[in-house]
Design goal:
Layout: H1 5-37, E1 41-42, E2 47-48, H2 58-96, H3 100-116, H4 124-127
Antiparallel strand pairs: 1-2
Amino acid sequence: MALLPEDQAAVRQMKVDLESLKQFETDILKVLDELTDSKATDPVQGLVQFTNYGTGFNEATAVGWGTYGVVENLKRLSTVLHKQIEAMALSIQIAQATTAEAEETNKIKLSQIFGDLGMRPKSPAADAPKPQPGVADVAGTD
């Protein structure tokens, strides 16, 4: 299954984008490590220690909850980003697959990743226009 030149260019671009995403993931993980290893968090539980910001005033609680929210959102981002990177790598493998069996194996793995993310890939048939009753198709039949 040889790729057309424009498809080869698209695969090359996906590989570049994949490397950029991997670097972004590394950066996100570094920030997450810095937040969870600082004095503001408990490294054992990974939870923000609100008392480290002070006690008895609303601002300390607000900062504590804000930091906690950032940490939790970064954790979710890193998980989803990692799955997206896996999906992109599999998409590249599918595009370059030389056998139908290899392509099918990668499609199954890709489907599992979408399931992990709570997503279902759209099938091309789902996007196809639905025939209208009484309207002739291109061949001129109803």
